[in-house]
Amino acid sequence: MRILPRLWLRVATLLCFAAIGSIGGRAQAAPVSEAQLKAALLFNFAKFVEWPTKALPEATTQFQICILGSDALREELGTITRDRTVGGHKLLVREVQDPHLARGCHMLFVSATGKKQRTQILESLRGTGALTVSDVEGFAEQGGMINLVMREGKVQFEINHKAATQEGLVISARLLSLAKFVIE
Fold this sequence. Notes:
Elements: H1 5-20, H2 34-47, E1 49-50, E2 63-68, H3 71-81, E3 85-86, E4 89-95, E5 107-110, H4 118-125, E6 131-134, E7 146-151, E8 154-160, H5 161-166, E9 170-171, H6 173-178, E10 181-183
Parallel strand pairs: 2-4, 2-5, 5-6, 6-7, 8-10
Antiparallel strand pairs: 1-9, 3-4, 7-8
Helix pairs in contact: 1-2, 2-3
C-alpha cells in the first residue's frame, strides 16, 4: 500500500501522539477523550493493514468496522469516518451484539463489556480475515491482533503479528515499529 509522503507524515504524527500521548490532556484547549483517541487509532489501523482480496473483493464492497460493547466509541468512530474511505472502500461503522453477527466485519473492536465473549468472538472470526482489536488486558496474548493498553497514563498498543498473518492480513512495518510489544 503506497501512502503519499505528506499524508504519511500526518498519519505518523497522529499514531505517535496516540502511542505516547496522555489521554487526560495537559494544558490543551480541548482534552481528547478516551473514545476519540481510540476511534482515531482504529481508523488509522485500517489504513496501515492490507486485507486479503477475498475480504474486499470489489471496489463497491464497504469496509466494515464493528464495535462490540461501546456506544461512545461507535459514535466517535462514526464521526471520524464520515465520508472517508480506506483503500478506496467506503467505511461503515456498526454495532454488533452477537459474535456470530461479526463475520462480515473487516475490523472488530471488543470493549471490556465483551470480555466474557472473547474466546467465542475470536473463534467465530477465525478464517474471515477480520482484524481484531481490544482494550481488554491480555487480548493479544490470547489470539487477538491488536491490544490497546494504558500504561502510566499513556495509550500504547501491542500487536499479535502471528495471529494477523494467519488471517492473511499484512500489517505495515511502520505500524509494527510503533507497537510497544509484538508477538511473532
